[in-house]
Amino acid sequence: MSIHFYNTISRQKEEFLSIEEKKVRMYTCGPTVYDFAHIGNYRTFMFEDLLRRYLEFRGYEVIQAMNITDVDDNTIRRSREKGVSLKELTNEYKAGFHADLKSLNIQPAHQYPEATQYVSEMIEMVQELEKMGFAYKTDDGSVYFDIGKYDGYGKLAHLKPDEMERGERVTDDSYEKEGARDFALWKGYKPEDGDVEWDSPWGKGRPGWHIECSVMSTELLGAHFDIHCGGVDNIFPHHENELAQSVCANGSKFVNYWMHSEYLLVDNKKMSKSLNNFYTLRDLLDKKYPLAAIRWMLLTTHYRQKLNFSVERLDEAQKAVNRLREFVSKLADYDGQGHDDGKNSVMSAKADFTAAMDDDLNISGGLAAIFELVRWGNRAMDNEELSKEGAGKILKLVQSFEHVLGVLTMKEEPSPKLDTVYIESKIAERNAARANKDFARSDAIRDELADQGIELIDTPDGTKWKLK
User: Fold this and answer.
1) How confident is the model at residue 463 (pLDDT cuts 50, 70, 90)?
2) What is the pLDDT at residue 171?
3) Are 135 and 143 within 8 A, CB to CB?
């Protein structure tokens, strides 16, 4: 059987065919680090985790890059509001993001490119677009993409070309479809940018949001890769603009499959601070909700359906997790002498699970197959119809399903909230030790942080860190 995914650009399910056999290159839109990510964000990140885990279950090697937007309109505005540097602001929320991923048992991406690390490459892409006639400079030192020069503009969001405001420009990173117009590739410096600026052929300024992902994705995955993911709110303008500038700059298709998850609602209402129904993961943990229940709820509604989040559903989610855990424990302890070796049940459950998940990640069908196995297995053990060997086969199958679900082995204690000021101070201390050629002290600081689950990465732009 083959896998089929719903492709946003064609608005239909398509057979999944990877560019390289049994290898998938996947780019997933990560957080903009000006605040802690909310549970709506994690609904998208959980969908991306499920997608990757299922592809791995089906035997694919998946290379995932997830970007971190650490410079844009929002990050600059928030850093000025809080009176801190852009780096200080974004470091705090990057640390929170990685801690949340670990708490929710979301597999770490292979790469977490940060926008500020790729500014020189962004300048090069903008120059290329300008040279090819797809971009133009304005009097304030900004550079805009000319949507009228690219015939394919609007095909991802299904915009009508005659309704686009060609010849007009938009400076904000985010805007509605009704405002489709030329967008900023490079933003000339303005006083409200503070000290956030880079030198460029057009004068001081900073990259536009959309060019960031075009550069980071193609730098890490190539000009043509398999899957690009995000939430439905990313379709326009972000992914539409990203697609246009990438195709024009690189002369290739860019992405084969665009996949987007739907919004998360809270008690059937749009999440909003004004409605007092806005939650970060930390908010839920402070209320003592179990991590496994949160993961289960975010995971088990089909990604193209709106997910309605509620306290009552968290209780239901925990009951489902407990039922599955109890089944696994019962299988592990079973010592019955029945004659059923479980072969037929294992084959049937795996076939039904795979058939459902092959159909655009039909998680409801997949879970139905699992819990039918749970129902049958419990009855067979209670009646001592199942052999010990059969219980072992079923246990092995459920453990393979766990690679997709990721809930049975979750730790119920969240990852610690990291003291980013402390980490940066230790990095500064290590840098000083290295400058003084005190390599023993430098190594000791690295080991000290490693013991706390923090990995240091030395790059040409300085020392970065991430959770191990």
Assistant:
1) confident
2) 81
3) yes
